[in-house]
Design goal:
The complex is a heterodimer. Chain A is mainly alpha-helical. Chain A has eleven helices and two strands, in the order ααααββααααααα. In chain A, strands 1-2 form a two-stranded antiparallel sheet. In chain A, α1 (2-31) runs parallel beside α5. Chain A is globular, with a radius of gyration of 19 Å. By secondary structure, chain B is α/β, with parallel strands linked by helices. Classes of the chains: A mainly alpha, B alpha/beta. Bound molecules: adenosine-5'-triphosphate (ATP) and magnesium ion.
Chain lengths: 289, 236
């Protein structure tokens, strides 16, 4: 009983982290930058669903994805693209700036303001034998599995997906194949932002409370997940997300551990970095022109 | 009109000038070699032509069109590509996927399929290992893959940067045979080599690069018998 619930919770929390972690890891692998503002895209997605949910849940989800993707594209084109080839520190500072910009813009919008907003919606429960699972949890699990399988297939079997691997491995050699690196980076931001939107939607339903910094904590956790799995690695982000998800689920089941959940997660991050600095599935890479 | 024309090229890395006012050309159907010692500026020249490095001065023309300033991926579409120094195959992709990346700009499915057959006939090793992850190939196999991958874009002009580097004498011979084969099927070749003997022997013309300057030029035969070249590059 407890075990089944733990597994289900682990999958649901881990799946959400994995979706966010994929955005971090793909952008890192392909654009070679740490997108510090990725967590704020979750916030953008969260507010969008809050705003559009009264019209219809489906409209809200679609609006979230479209709006996050748009913000992702604009941020990439206006803030990051002009810095292609600049020092990593300049890019990181810009990304932090973008993060603050998104938060303060949200705060200054009249329909958002500084008070948290939320949706209360009961998805109901599904009774399977003696186990009762919330439908939201089930949808989260199914959706994140679909995302992970879909993305894996996309990367392996489509021309654009393979080009993403090529660019992440050797940008110069990829250009010699005729690959437009800027286009591939754009696609990466689109995918990352869309996944952040979906994760944002699930988090809003779960937390039922959105403030302008609401993306920060899941963002940092997912970033930790990406690092644990090996930043730059797509299966790594999935594995890292699930590891953190299961830790959270286990801690949630054990009253003595639950106040220390965050501490335990970050301790594991430090432990992994000490034992294997490249993460589970990360590789050392030579940087080339 | 030359297929490739480099005019008064200067390239800087920060304050260091790696290329100093070099000019040369490659005519359609030729094999042209740039020879030069380590650090002479051969790779810098090749990467500047492909738009991977931006020259500080000078012009590069391909088929009469000025190409410096054009992004690299568009230069590839114009019909030229490069086998880069150190092979730089995609080590996480399979052999087959690497070759497919070579055909990235192409849409002619039938043509691509035919070229796969040709490449597998030319490199039976690659066919045997087509589903193997390319990073696990031997150095020689990786060089074959890099050459096969480049020819998959069906370039009019193929540039090769030290393709014989680090290979056993037998494999070096094989590499030069393949270059000759690419030339016979109608590809114009610009070759960068330190192996002056072998490269001059197959070249129509050659340029000698020293400290970022072209110091000597002539036909392959002329340079093979030139005293200066013998002393500096042919070990005698
Ligand atoms: N990224 C770089 N930054 C600074 N200097 C560089 C860079 N790349 C090359 N150089 C310098 O430019 C000069 C030419 O280098 P290049 O790589 O073009 O030589 P090369 O002829 O290809 O040599 P090799 O035979 O060793 O490959 C060298 O002095 C090198 O130190
Ligand atoms: Mg070189």
């Amino acid at each position: 009983m407890e075990i089944i619930m733990t597994i289900i919770n682990g999958l649901s929390i881990g799946g959400t982290y994995a979706m966010i972690a994929l955005g971090y890891t793909m952008v890192y692998g392909i654009a070679k930058m740490l997108n510090f503002a990725h967590g704020d895209i979750i916030m953008v997605g969260g507010y969008t669903i809050v705003l559009f949910f009264p019209i219809s849940p489906i409209v809200g989800i679609i609006a979230s994805v479209i709006f996050c993707v748009t913000v992702g594209i604009v941020v990439e084109r206006c803030a990051y693209k002009p810095l292609r080839g600049a020092s990593p520190l300049a890019v990181l500072i810009t990304a932090i700036g973008v993060s603050k910009l998104l938060q303060s813009t949200a705060q200054s919008l009249p329909f958002i303001g500084s008070k948290p907003k939320g949706i209360t919606y009961n998805f109901g429960n599904l009774q399977i034998g003696s186990v009762s699972i919330s439908v939201l949890t089930l949808i989260t699990i199914l959706c994140s599995i679909a995302v992970m399988v879909g993305l894996t297939l996309f990367v392996k079997y489509t021309k654009t997906g393979r080009a993403m691997i090529a660019v992440s491995e050797d940008r110069g050699a990829a250009q010699l194949m005729g690959i437009n690196v800027n286009f591939i980076i754009m696609i990466t931001f689109i995918i990352g932002s869309a996944l952040a939107a979906v994760a944002g939607v699930f988090l809003v339903f779960k937390i039922q409370d959105v403030g302008t910094t609401f993306g920060a904590m899941p963002g940092i956790k997912a970033f930790a997940a990406a690092v644990i799995g090996g930043i730059g690695s797509i299966p790594g982000a999935m594995a890292g997300g699930l590891v953190l998800g299961f830790i959270e689920a286990i801690c949630g089941m054990v009253p003595a551990l639950s106040p220390y959940t965050d501490a335990i997660e970050f301790a594991i991050l430090i432990l992994v970095l000490l034992v294997k600095p490249t993460g589970f599935l990360g590789k050392k890479r030579r940087e080339k022109v | 009109m030359a297929l490739l024309e480099v005019k008064n090229l200067d390239v800087h890395y920060g304050v260091i000038q790696a290329i100093k006012d070099i000019s040369f050309e490659v005519n359609e159907g030729e094999i042209v070699t740039l020879i030069g010692a380590n650090g002479a500026g051969k790779t810098t020249t090749m990467q500047s032509i492909m738009g991977l490095i931006h020259p500080s001065h000078g012009e590069i023309y391909y088929d009469g069109q000025k190409i410096n300033g054009i992004p690299s991926h568009k230069i590839v579409k114009l019909g030229m590509t490069q086998v880069p120094e150190g092979r730089r195959i995609f080590s996480e992709l399979t052999v087959y996927e690497n070759l497919l990346m070579g055909a990235y700009t192409r849409k002619d499915k039938d043509g691509i399929e035919k070229d796969f057959a040709d490449i597998y006939a030319l490199f039976p090793r690659l066919e045997e290992r087509k589903n193997q992850i390319a990073g696990t190939l031997s150095g020689g196999e990786q060089q074959m893959l890099a050459m096969g991958r480049a020819i998959m874009s069906r370039p009019k002009l193929l540039m090769l940067d030290e393709p014989s580097m680090g290979l056993s004498p037998l494999l070096v011979d094989q590499v030069f045979e393949i270059i000759k084969h690419f030339h016979e099927i109608g590809t114009t070749i610009l070759l960068v080599e330190q192996n002056a003997n072998k490269s001059l022997a197959i070249s129509d013309r050659a340029y000698v690069l020293e400290n970022g300057k072209i110091v000597l030029t002539g036909t392959g035969k002329e340079l093979l018998t030139s005293e200066e070249i013998k002393k500096a590059y042919l070990g005698g």
